Amino acid sequence: MSDQAPIYPHQYASIPGIEYRVIDEFEPQDKKRCISCQTNDIVVVKLPFNFHFKGTEQQPEGWLYCTNLRTEETGYIYAEYVEYVQTNMPRPAVRTILPPVPEDDGDGTVPPVI
């Protein structure tokens, strides 16, 4: 992994997925299914995977289906063009504490939750 920082502020840390930095410009032949990327772009492979992921998070192989955070385009990029940055795990859902269930007063109505 290189010591270079992304060329834009990192604003997507809450996206559950694996972040990769593009290490070389990628200009695909298949522009319908693949995305263009510039050196130092950050791409995120969202979790859970919606494609057959090969290799490991740190050493992916083959094609990655990801989102380019600079352009917001989604599509495939070849794994040889990226290096691992970090994995953002899904944050647990915020649980809302509801008031206790009211006792039945006999008329079958339940007061609304405020």
TrEMBL record:
<keyword id="KW-0728">SH3 domain</keyword>
<dbReference type="InterPro" id="IPR036028">
    <property type="entry name" value="SH3-like_dom_sf"/>
</dbReference>
<protein>
    <recommendedName>
        <fullName>SH3 domain-containing protein</fullName>
    </recommendedName>
</protein>
<dbReference type="Pfam" id="PF07653">
    <property type="entry name" value="SH3_2"/>
</dbReference>
<feature type="domain" description="SH3">
    <location>
        <begin position="15"/>
        <end position="87"/>
    </location>
</feature>
<dbReference type="InterPro" id="IPR001452">
    <property type="entry name" value="SH3_domain"/>
</dbReference>
